[in-house]
Amino acid sequence: MGGGFRSVNVRLRKELGLFANIRPIKSFEGVKALHKDVDLIIVRENTEDLYIGKERMIDENKAESIKIITREASEKICRYAFQMAKDLNRKKVTLVHKANIMKLTDGLFLESGRKVARDYPEIEFEEMIVDAMSMKLVQFPQDYDIIVAPNLYGDILSDLAAGLIGGLGLAPSANMGEDIAIFEPVHGSAPDIANKNIANPISAILSGVMMLKHIGELEAATKIERAVSATLKVEGNLTKDLGGCQGTKEFAEKVIERIT
User: Fold this and answer.
1) Fewer C-beta neighbours within 10 Å, C or N terminus of the chain?
2) Is 32 part of the annotated catalytic residue set?
């Protein structure tokens, strides 16, 4: 932290043009969580904002980081969110910003969202300042369908939202480009618990489900998804991060047993 090389994932997203990070947040029966009946999707812009990593030391006591927001990228991610809402029969898109303070950068993102929203009159459009969004998500996550946000806010809010349903072990994600996609757990790598058989494999399994849906293998995706849900419903099947005692391999084997 605070040194070394930048994230490999960030480099991959930039090099491969993976402009959209899709993070579904959905409750599972059998998992103790702060909320039930949560079913929302966070659509995060993936290529710019503070994540471009343009920083410098002005002097030994002052550092500067540059935030880049472009009209092209903003309209692209907002259109992706609205089209997803249309394709999935979702009713509302909520755009997250801090345009009350960052009037030029976040103002441009907000302006782009308003423009795209006019092309989708059948979908409700809502604007939400990021700090208010954080509170609303904790209080009433069931009120949201699709949330579209710039890079940094989308990253923070998706971790917050995962905490509402039981943790990052339940959160899959997809990085989408024009003709390339990469699927990964929201939590990324976890070298500190490697080879200890304690990692929750659900987020990795569900990322695989997202990949299968993307390539049109809907039957296989549905079978695996149902098997995960069925496994979680059985008492004693939870992994350690969810308050249970199952290891990575043991839980995965229980899922495999239920794939029919």
Assistant:
1) N
2) no
pLDDT-based confidence at 4, cuts 50/70/90? low
Active site residue 179: no
Residue 59: active-site member:
no
Catalytic residue check, 241: no
Tell me the average pLDDT of the chain: 93
pLDDT at 151 over 60: yes
The yes-or-no verdict on residue 5 having pLDDT over 60 is no
Q: State the Cα torsion 49-118-85-9 to the nearest 10°.
A: -10
What pLDDT score was predicted for residue 241? 87
Candidate list 91, 131, 233, 249, residue with the active-site label: 131
Active-site annotation holds for 223: no
- Mean pLDDT throughout 137-157? 97
Q: Of these residues, 14, 115, 136, 159, which one is catalytic?
A: 159
Q: Model-level pTM greater than 0.85?
A: yes
